[in-house]
UniProtKB/TrEMBL annotation:
The lineage of its organism: Bacteria, Bacillati, Actinomycetota, Actinomycetes, Pseudonocardiales. Keywords: Kinase, Transcription, Transcription regulation, Transferase. The keyword Transmembrane does not apply. This is GAF domain-containing protein. One of its GO terms (molecular function) is kinase activity. It comes from Amycolatopsis rubida.
Length: 258
């Protein structure tokens, strides 16, 4: 890893750690985790699943809509590297999902991955002590074996994210943990609804709609979940998102954090 890459990675950990000392938006934070995982780990897409605290697993964030769709399918079929990962609490890797071993082990996941254009998949757990609350899934279009250093960095990112979403204090009590995870997943549903509204109004694909939603929330200094709720509920019109250049100067989209 070059010095420049080292510095970028260090800045990512600082960015993730900064959210621990302020009131932060969990879903926006998880989207950042997925995006930065793609940047630093040389993978083509990444997604996060979380426990719904009832024995099920649901998608919470993705680096792209393609990753989101695959994560959703994985949550429905209950198989694949991410489910082996949350079951064991250990990283799981598959260099080529078209091998006979992978297709026998995860037949539906392998088929869904092929349909989405992915050939390799790995997952690292999001752990709190002995409890696994989710997983970070890493996807590649071509067969590839992730080296131990990459897996170690991915695990470190997942560990920081786990601490962040649980806010440390809430993690000390099981009932608060369950409430926080459930609230996060409910907010994700509202965000999906808001993305649909924007996608239809602006004739965007879902990924661009989510990007515009995040830009608006960041530069109007509002929570992503609050903006999504207002948009989905009709109190915020989709026309407000149409032309960022018309936003006040102080609200113009800034460059993303390094």
């Amino acid at each position: 890893m070059s010095m420049t890459a080292d510095r970028r990675l260090a800045r990512t950990f600082v960015t993730l750690a900064d959210t621990l000392v302020v009131d932060f938006d969990v879903l926006d934070f998880l989207a950042l985790l997925a995006e930065r995982s793609v940047e630093h780990l040389a993978v083509d897409a990444a997604g996060v699943i979380l426990s719904d605290q009832r024995g099920g697993w649901r998608p919470a964030a993705g680096s792209s809509e393609r990753a989101d769709l695959l994560e959703l399918f994985t949550a429905q079929t209950r198989e694949g590297p991410c489910f082996d990962c949350v079951a064991t609490g250990k990283p799981v890797t598959c260099a080529d999902l078209r091998t006979a071993e992978a297709q026998t082990r995860w037949p539906r996941f392998s088929l869904a991955a092929a349909g989405s254009g992915f050939r390799a998949a790995s997952a690292v757990p999001m752990r709190l002590r002995d409890q696994t609350v989710g997983a970070l899934t890493l996807l590649n279009h071509e067969p590839v074996t992730l080296d131990p250093d990459t897996i170690e960095i991915g695990q470190a990112l997942a560990d920081v994210a786990t601490i962040g979403i649980l806010h440390q204090h809430a993690a000390a009590r099981g009932e608060l943990l369950a409430e926080q995870l459930e609230a996060t997943l409910q907010q994700r549903t509202v965000i999906e609804q808001a993305k649909g509204v924007l996608a239809e109004y602006l004739a965007f694909d879902m990924h661009d709609a989510f990007t515009r939603l995040r830009e608006y929330s960041h530069h109007h200094q509002r929570r992503l979940s609050e903006v999504a709720r207002d948009l989905a509920g009709g109190t915020l019109r989709p026309s407000a998102f149409a032309t960022p250049r018309s936003w006040p100067v102080e609200d113009q989209p800034a460059s993303p954090p390094a």
